[in-house]
Design brief:
- The protein has 221 residues and is an alpha+beta fold.
- It has three domains: 1-54; 57-116, no CATH class; 136-215, no CATH class.
- Helices cover 54% and strands 22% of the residues.
- The strands form two sheets. Strands 3, 4, 5, 6 and 7 form a five-stranded antiparallel β-sheet that branches. A two-stranded parallel sheet has the order 1-2.
- The longest helix is centred in the N-terminal third of the chain and has 53 residues, at 2-54.
């Protein structure tokens, strides 16, 4: 009888010990997973902070569309920061306050990196690029070669909503201007680059036209 009782007790003790060990392992696994999650979250936060320090964001607020904004995006990359336009109404106090805090931080970073007059230097660079591209587009619009090429293209694709996009070359005196409007290419109705003009900025004339139709630039700032 005593042997049976001892046997039963030993089984119960073994079961209890097994349950305790099992729960302990479960808790340890949960604690380990929580620790891993905290480590991953911390690493992500640290990465975001490092990235924001290396590529800070500067935001301007609302107002009518500014044609120079696309040039601000380009120049901002050269200055190693991100330019952003927030169309949200200033009545959204939370978003506005967050952007202001980001701007103050970005201003501090860029002052150390570029100088106290970083904003003036940035805007001067924007104005310079905008002026060059505006000149290239003006020369293209006035070119007889381009006008005649557009007339030829219009025989099969009526020009609607013409737009001009500029691209740099290895020669600072040359620009490529893509003349685009909506048409068909690859059986789809999309923005099409119907011709590209090579513009000589120094002599203010179009020197060559490339007429192969290509898919237009769909990138939106």
């Amino acid at each position: 009888m005593k042997k049976n009782i001892l046997f039963v007790l030993s089984i119960l003790i073994t079961l209890i010990i097994g349950i305790v060990i099992g729960k302990t392992k479960v808790f340890e696994k949960q604690a380990e997973e929580e620790h891993k999650k905290v480590v991953i979250d911390t690493q992500e936060i640290n990465f975001q902070k490092r990235y924001e320090n290396e590529h800070p964001t500067y935001t301007v607020f609302g107002g009518p569309p500014d044609p120079k904004d696309q040039y601000r995006y380009i120049i901002a990359k050269l200055y190693n920061f991100r330019f952003s336009v927030n169309g949200t109404s200033c009545t959204n106090i939370v978003d506005h306050s967050a952007d202001v805090r980001h701007n103050n931080r970005t201003d501090s970073i860029l002052q150390r990196r570029i100088g106290k007059n970083w904003r003036d230097r940035f805007e001067n660079s924007v104005d310079s690029l905008y002026k060059v591209d505006s000149l290239a587009i003006s020369i293209t619009e006035k070119s007889i070669l381009v006008k005649n090429a557009i007339k030829q293209k219009e025989k099969t694709n009526k020009a609607k909503y013409i737009s001009y996009k500029t691209y740099p070359t290895t020669n600072k005196n040359l620009k490529i201007v893509s003349v685009e409007w909506y048409g068909k290419i690859y059986r789809d109705s999309i923005k099409v680059s119907f011709l590209r003009a090579i513009v000589d900025l120094k002599n203010k004339k179009v020197t060559e036209i490339e007429k192969a139709e290509r898919e237009g630039n769909q990138f939106m700032f």
